[in-house]
Amino acid sequence: MDANPRDASAWEKLARTLIELKDFDRCEATLNEFERTVQPRPAVIDDIRGDIALERKDEKGAEQFWNAYLRSKPSRVTGAATCDKIAGLYVDQFRWRDVLAFRTRALAAQETAERHVMRATALWRLRDWKNASTEMHKASALSASDATVEEWLPQFERLEKFL
To answer: How many angstroms separate the Cα of 56 from the Cα of each of 15, 22, 70?
Structure first.
C-alpha cells in the first residue's frame, strides 16, 4: 500500500522523526516538499521550522516561526505546547514577563499540574510570592504526584515560611 502524498499527518510525522534524528537538512527538504505538495499549506510547517531553528541555535527564527504558527490558531493542545516552547526560549533569555505571559496562555489552553508549576516559577522570578504560592497550591491540588510538583513543592513550602 502506497502512502498518500497529500497526507499532512504523514509528512508531519516524517519531519518530526528527522528532527529527532538531528537530520535538519533532510527535514528542511522534507518541509519544502511538504509545503509544495499539501494544499492548503499546513500551518504546522511553521511549528516544525521553529523546532529546527531552535536546534540550530537560531532563537529569533524559532520565535518568529512559532508565533506565526500560533497566529494560525492551532488546536488548544498543540497551541499550548508551542506556547510552552516559546516560554522556554524566553526563560533562557531571562525575559520573565514574557515567560509569564506565555505560561499563562499555555495554562489557559490546557490545564496541567506541570503548567501551573511553570507559571508559579515565572511568578517566583518576578518576586510575586503570593501568586506564585497560590499557583503552586493549584498544581499540587491538581496532581500532587506529578514529578514537577514533587520537585518544586518543597522549595515553595520553604518560601511560604518567610511570607
So the answer is: 15, 10, 21
